[in-house]
Amino acid sequence: MLNGDHKLNILEKSIWLLVNFIKNITLFSKPKDYWKILNLDKKTLNNQLKKTHPSSSPSRRLCDMFWNTLPWNEIQNLLGNKISAVEIGCGKGGYGIRLNELIVNFDYLGCDILKREEWNYRSSKNISFKVLDSTNVSNILKDKNFIFTQSAVEHFQFDELFFSDI
Fold this sequence. Notes:
The protein is an alpha/beta fold. The chain has helices spanning 10-29, 31-34, 42-50, 58-69, 72-78, 94-102, 118-122, 159-165; strands at residues 83-88, 106-112, 127-131, 146-148.
């Protein structure tokens, strides 16, 4: 197994928290350096940062900006004018909502090991959710042309099986 869900002892947890706290302070204090990899001008960068949640970690904000700046029209054209997405490890389904706002002809199935209350009001005619373990994804991929996962693979108990299935 390659996943990172092993338990840390109290010393390892303390070190991890301290290092991440220092790293996050450093990243937020030098945003021009951190966001440089997106290759955005300052105005676009500021607009994109406003679209992210201010309490999100730097890595989550970077991921949100990544999804916001992909060329969705070109991707949609490559996939036959419709994106039929499945997200494995969707959590509350926030990326389904985000992508639904960015993509014209779109449907989404969010899958997670736990059902979330947010699914009840985020479901719509083109957004649905399913309780599913990462080891059972092959059955739902048949009609999908866009498979993604955001910050979840590290939690899959059998991540190698997941990759072999997809």
